[in-house]
Amino acid sequence: RWARLRIPNGQAARTFWKEGTRPNARRSRNVKFLINNNISFREVQYLFRLQMSDGADGVETLAIVSLYSPPDRHLLEASQCMLWSVEYLGSAALQVIPAKSILSVVAMIPHTPYSDHTDEKHFFVVEKPGLDVADMGGYIEQLSEADDQDL
C-alpha cells in the first residue's frame, strides 16, 4: 500500500502512480515541501522504502517527485506574496526526497498568467485554510473503504 502516505498534519498524500490511472481521481499528490528552510512544491510520483547502508537510520521512506519551478517573482511581488504562480516541469525534473519533509497537500490550479505564454503549464497554489491550527488540534483525514479497495 505505497500509493498514499499519512503526513504529520493528518492529511493523506497520494501518488501519480495510482491517481494517474483513474480519470476522475482526487488530486492529492501535490505537496508543500520543506528542505534547507526553503518551501517549494512538488508532485509525488511514487513512494518507496529504502534500507540505509550505514544501518544507523534503518529504513527510510522516500518519495520520487517531479518539480515545479520557483514562483514567478513579478506575480509574487505584485500580489504581496499571495499568488504563487509556478510552472510544472514534469518528468524532465525528478528528485528523490525524504517523505518526512512533506508539510501538507496542496491544490495546483491551472491558469494562464500571461497571454503570450500559452504553451507553458502554469499553476497557482491553493492551500487548505486552517491547517496550521488543525495540526495543533490533531486533525486526521478520514480514509474510506473505497480508498483501500482502489489501491
List the helices and strands and how they pair.
Blueprint: E1 4-6, E2 12-14, H1 16-19, E3 30-35, E4 38-51, E5 59-68, H2 73-78, E6 85-98, E7 102-110, E8 122-127, H3 131-137, H4 145-150
Antiparallel strand pairs: 1-2, 3-4, 3-7, 4-5, 5-6, 6-8, 7-8
Notes on the protein architecture:
By secondary structure, this protein is an alpha+beta fold. It has helices spanning 16-19, 73-78, 131-137, 145-150; strands spanning 4-6, 12-14, 30-35, 38-51, 59-68, 85-98, 102-110, 122-127. The protein has a 6-stranded antiparallel β-barrel with strand order 3-4-5-6-8-7. A two-stranded antiparallel ribbon has the order 1-2. The longest helix has 7 residues, at 131-137. The relative contact order is 0.22. The mean pLDDT is 79.
Short recap of the structure:
By secondary structure, this protein is an alpha+beta fold.
